[in-house]
Amino acid sequence: MKTPKISIAMATYNGGKYISEQLESLAKQTIAPYELVVCDDGSTDATVSIVEDFAERAPFPVRIYVNDENLGYADNFLGAASRCAGDWIAFCDQDDVWLPRKIEILSKKLREASSAELMWIAHTSLVSDEKLNLTGARWPDIPRDAHKSRSTHYGFFGCVGFSTVFNARLAKSIDHSLRPRMYWPIFNGPPGHDLWIGILANAMGDMAFVSEPLAIWRRHGRSATGTPTRTSILDGARRSMIATDPEHYIFSGDMAAETSSCFKKIAQSSCDPLISSRASEAAARFQILSENLTLRGALYRKTGHVDRAAICWKLIYRNAYFGKAFHSLGAKSFVKDMLFAFGGLYLLRRLASAGSPTHD
Q1: Complete domains list, the chain, with CATH
Q2: What pLDDT does residue 222 have?
């Protein structure tokens, strides 16, 4: 495989406090990026002038665009990606730091990829405080290198954008105005650029994972996202196991239905035959996921064990728990739903409550 051309897509907005350190880390890469494309979303601080000064001395081309109106971070990132000329695109936050060998290692991974189907790579990153003191945490924390085939992840699979690189076809062969616009509470709006690219990559081709840390994720008071921790993940899993709110599943089913509709539109509009064909397949898979989630919401609305059991049998008949990973609810959901249907979840909740600390 020829040397991959990796473009960097950076979205900026009032990032003057930290952006210089990020830019310097890009300049210190052992293999230079193909280019840096910066889209600014109407900064009122020195962000643009800092990038312009850097562009004059950068060891690679730097192109700067200033939006006429504020787009929000997701559309700003996708706009930057659509302007990239490389074969591969890496999202770059304005306040993080790349480790020197990031592009070198990703380039090597791309050259060695055993499949021409590869669409996306994610790598481990280190977490730091505002002053770049490492906390000892890693996010994402990828335990081992791996290569996964198309559609072997859950439909809504994604990863934080700063820790990924993706095939430029996902930016150039797809009209991103067609992506879901439904309000997702986790994003305080439509799905973010990184989740959307992850959804596309999973639907369109293979995904790879690199366990070596290649960037530092700086966390500070102005960060757009919180910092996941192992404790919060475990606590979240516990709360998820005992939660019985049907509206969560109904809403998730609606999200999957909207995403299915989006993929249908992509299939009809893309001029890339591969993208069009696989978007059509993804639309069908998301429709199955929507039906599974909606049925699950109906289960948790029922009060009688007979009605609950009937829905469980429908889900089992649909192979909703152990079917293809893309639209499977999974073994944990199977256990939870069976407990709920036959009254065992009440005992599980009591046990979980008994194990929680009490306060006077």
Answers
A1: 6-226 (3.90.550.10), 231-352 (no CATH)
A2: 57
